[in-house]
Design brief:
There is one protein chain. The chain has nine helices and 14 strands. The protein has about 290 residues and is an alpha/beta fold. It has one domain: Acetylglutamate kinase-like (Carbamate kinase, 3-Layer(aba) Sandwich), CATH 3.40.1160. It has an eight-stranded mixed sheet, with helices on both faces. The chain has a four-stranded mixed sheet with strand order 7-6-9-10. The protein is globular and about 60 Å long.
């Protein structure tokens, strides 16, 4: 690329940097970009860059593949109820060890090594994420799986005000019959509810698909922007289906809570976060209220 082309990229980014400086953006980190070392390094660079230009970034992560791998090493077979992982006491110990320990601290260390400042947390810290036990449709037991009832932003606000990136894993502080216990919560839902609670400008969901497609067989049919009403219509028509439905529902949850924009982006694309935020074309699907 010529020097003029490089300059054009920077000039194009300027109004977006100005717009988002001082605003809060929640990033849900998951998929291939958590496993592929090259993609992982690019995501971390993007997060640090966002922080350097004055964006208040909160990074929320899950870790399903890592949890699955640890359970297999222990000889424990996973069980799913209506697509949700049944979480007994032994599984919860593994979930907490992997999410709150191994993955959370690895991500935090990567941000620090890239020149950022980060603090690794889980939803138990400061009782940031408070949840009650969730029952599947029909009342079927899911074990120690929680549904977030309340988000306490005090600890996150303190870190953000100090220019620190909170890295939050999706384990919540139990309420009711599970008062004080750890509950396993869905990371996408946690990110959506957290985004609403901190009055985020944007929620960015990193996935392993390009975004919402009009035709699943045609990657060129990406829908770059749509309203929440249009999103609901696409669900009714069956255009949004299968694994995309939970992502769409998280976008709707965030937007109904006051978040201005929600984005579904392909974490397999190089530097997808900053391309989506700082360029006119973006890389995924943007949903607005």
């Amino acid at each position: 690329m010529s020097s003029a082309g490089e300059a054009e990229i920077l000039v194009q980014a300027l109004p977006y940097i100005r717009k988002y400086r001082g605003r809060t953006i929640v990033v849900k980190y998951g998929g291939a970009s958590m496993i592929n070392e090259g993609l992982k390094a690019q995501v971390i660079q993007d997060i640090v860059l966002m922080n350097y230009v004055g964006i208040r970034v909160i990074l929320v992560h899950g870790g399903g593949p890592e949890i699955e791998a640890h359970l297999k090493r222990l000889g424990k077979e996973s069980r799913f109820v209506q697509g949700l992982r049944y979480t007994d006491g032994e599984t919860m110990e593994v979930v907490q060890m992997v999410l709150c320990g191994k993955l959370n601290k690895e991500i935090t260390a990567l941000i620090e090594n890239a020149g950022g400042r980060a603090v690794g947390l889980c939803g138990i810290d400061g009782a940031t994420l408070k949840a009650r036990r969730l029952k599947a449709a029909g009342g079927e037991d899911l074990g120690l799986v929680g549904e977030i009832e309340e988000v306490d932003t005090a600890l996150l606000d303190t870190l953000l005000d100090s220019g620190i990136i909170p890295v939050l894993s999706s384990v919540a502080f139990g309420l009711g019959e599970d008062a004080g216990r750890s509950l396993n919560v869905n990371a996408d839902t946690a990110a959506a509810k957290l985004a609403a609670a901190v009055k985020a400008e944007k929620l960015l969901l990193m996935t392993d698909v390009k975004g919402i497609l009009r035709d699943m067989a045609d990657p060129g049919s990406l829908i770059q922007a749509l309203s929440l009403a249009e999103l609901e219509a696409l669900k009714a028509q069956g255009v949004v289906s299968k694994g995309m439905i939970p992502k769409a529902d998280c976008c709707a949850l965030a937007l109904s809570g006051g978040v201005k924009k929600a984005h579904i982006i392909d974490g397999r694309e190089p530097h997808s976060l900053i391309v989506e935020l700082f360029t006119d074309r973006g890389v995924g699907t943007m949903v607005s209220a």
